Amino acid sequence: xxxxxxxxxxxxxxxxxxxxxxxxxxxxxxxxxxxxxxxxxxxxxxxxxxxxxxxxxxxxxxxxxxxxxxxxxxxxxxxxxxxxxxxxxxxxxxxxxxxxxxxxxxxxxxxxxxxxxxxxxxxxxxxxxxxxxxxxxxxxxxxxxxxxxxxxxxxxxxxxxxxxxxxxxxxxxxxxxxxxxxxxxxxxxxxxxxxxxxxxxxxxxxxxxxxxxxxxxxxxxxxxxxxxxxxxxxxxxxxxxxxxxxxxxxxxxxxxxxxxxxxxxxxxxxxxxxxxxxxxxxxxxxxxxxxxxxxxxxxxxxxxxxxxxxxxxxxxxxxxxxxxxxxxxxxxxxxxxxxxxxxxxxx
Length: 347
Description:
The chain is an alpha/beta fold.
């Protein structure tokens, strides 16, 4: 039996609220040469029941696997391993695809055969409005140079996640095997995957169309805190600095490393804010950040000519000076101010 063109991997954990919508959005596609691989990562709600029902009614099209809870990274890697398509896409269980997504993706693959194809997302279920454009181009389908992709990866958050992308499976399989040592990471694991996949890909294409609906569900460092996740975020950010340094040297571009340093400031700010909001004594967390290699490389020894948000600059300056009490107070003030601004503009 010939392999399908596309395998769609869906990691699912306690996904009963939205998984049905996600699967239906795929099954209603105007394209047939695909399979769906669901990895149930030890769900304790009705996810298993939903998956079994869809698998039973769409035999051969939907393949379901259940495993003990191992975290999102291992769930995605298991899905990649089980996939038989020539290309693989990752879809989160609470998101949806436009009904023309796979048809447009298949057409782009046929025309350019890239190692990695990127497209835009929408935060509107009707797909009526695109989110931020990944690249500034007037063409519906464009070849993108690797230097542009790497610069975008380290200077923005737009390429940090595997959704809104399709990968040539034979290219990324080897890169996936190198991620095993981060198996149980539950923070920044998407970013680890994207750095590894982009490293091994050579040819890139961009489809300027919002084909993926991203559902913005609650859950961020601002609302919860875990010391383990903070440590993981710092490790990943240091890896990002290493990789950015490598690509900056290869392409002769200072912007790549500058972008990675700006991203590091954002990571530090997120950890500081979360600790300030959730820890009675945040000094242990503040010290963890201050003594990290990535803080030293980006804040203490990093480039001076980078544009960083004022609140993040202030937080990192206070952290560098060990002014922890003032840092905690100001971080809470900054958080409240951002919430007020968000509520005003969303009203």
